[in-house]
Amino acid sequence: MPMHPFRYERRLVLKWGTVITMSTLLSACGTPKEAGEPRPIARLMALGGPMNDPARAKRGVDALHALGFEVDNLSVLARRHSRFAGTIAERAADLNALADPAEAMPELIVATRGGYGAIQVLEHLDFDRLCPRLISSGTVLMGYSDNTAAQLALLTRGGVVSWSGPMLYGDFAAQPTSAFTMNWLRQALAAGRFSLRVDAPQKAAATRLHGTLWGGNLTVLTSLVGTPWLPALSDGILFIEDVGEDVYKADRMLEQLRQAGILSRQRAILFGHFSGQRQDGYDPDGYTMDRLIERVAAQTGVPAFTGLPIGHVADIVPLPIGGQGELIADVDGFTLNVSGAPALKRLPVAWIEPTAASSL
């Protein structure tokens, strides 16, 4: 059955074939579940920074409740050690506890936030037992930013496909929560496949290609070069984003990936938001991301596309790290068909009620 793409324009003018209303997704917070309707479990995972604002953390939990999930592992909300959300052992235990065959598996694992610290836990994760359990149970793991380290390691060590998608502290707790992000979250996690149309003029030639979708935060991805945690993917569709990294810093990281031979092995590079950049005072004409992207494409011979709605911004589309992508591009934009990604094995009741989304 063909997928009908939602559309996204860089100017944030949305052209959706169907709009899923926010009221469908976020009912009143604190609504008790009805008897006989056990909710799917969303387990919290705090691998990086702590949550310093309890009210904000509670808003995130309330939003997950409103979406129809029961939230587990709430102790991470107040957990703190130095600048991290707990000791290395405590943070690793958020995932390692699920390696125990006696432990019930949640439907969803949600990262609390990014920050820094996920790379510290990687050598302490029980990949040999954890990865098969995540795959066989169908548990969906989701996060982005600093969590990119763990997501790429899980893909490398055990073939676990996860979602680069919204997190508790920054996305679910937002005021207001982005209807755009929640609509896409529902589509992605309910079906494991979707089609996205991005309307943003492109300088790359028109093309049609397939590849494994992978990537995430550029800073974190680059930090894994030379470690056992970075997947050795060829013919992939690499997607990247970042925040607070000026153009020359993004240049340095992309140059490292290029010289390491990683970029030239890809079929395409998709650039999301690089937010929080300052103007480059050393270039009177303005050293911009657009110029950098043009140069990277010319040096590597790999087509580069811009305008992907991912990053440290309000409106994001979940993308699978390890799923499959079909990219159909023209000068006016591109369509990304996503498949091969994990879907929730048990949907919240509100998600399976008849809505306009059933026509997708």
TrEMBL record:
- Identify the keywords attached in UniProt to this record, alphabetized: Carboxypeptidase, Hydrolase, Protease, Serine protease
Give start-end of the signal peptide. Answer: none
Keyword presence, Transferase: no
Kindly identify the residues recorded as the active site: 145 (nucleophile), 241 (charge relay system), 312 (charge relay system)
Indicate the segments forming the LD-carboxypeptidase N-terminal domain, all copies.
44-165
Q: Which Pfam families match?
A: Peptidase_S66, Peptidase_S66C
| Molecular function via GO | carboxypeptidase activity; serine-type peptidase activity
GO terms in the biological process aspect are: proteolysis
Q: From which domain of life does this come?
A: Bacteria
Protease in keyword set:
yes
The record's similarity note reads: Belongs to the peptidase S66 family.
What name does UniProt use for this protein? Murein tetrapeptidase LD-carboxypeptidase
Q: Which organism is it from?
A: Paludibacterium purpuratum
